[in-house]
Amino acid sequence: MKQKVTPFLMFNDQLEAAMAFYTATFPDSEIRNVARTGKDGPVSSAEFVVGGQVFMGYNGGPYFSFSEGFSLYVDCEDQAEVDAYWDTLVKAGATPTACGWIKDPFGLSWQIVPRRFMELIRDENPKKVQAVMDAMMKMVKLDVAALERAYNEA
Q: Assuming Cys at both sites, which of 4, 26, 138, 146 could form a disulfide with 51, CB separation 3.0 to 4.6 Å?
């Protein structure tokens, strides 16, 4: 089934490298359709899938850049999955920012979030939720054990 709405990402000139990295990093990913400038020229636009999500991409030059106003949220099963994605992004040249956010080498921001964090902040006890949020705000990469400690001690 074709998606009605598809995110469209404007890269400077790194679309091909970004697609290769994203599809190698996340399961259920593939590069679908690629248009090149000339027969053997660089990729100008493409359709690709990352983690089951379809994207369109374009090498639009330096006129556009990404901001934290748009980020990709990665639902991680556990701390091991958080660590795996985080480490892969860091090794590729990503810059960790705060609260589970990391900016990849292409300028796109990602939120690497353990599922347990979302479960904890949905608790009915506002004191526990606030304790988890306070702990998260002090983190760069999210730490499930530390989040659970904050929850249990509240």
A: 26
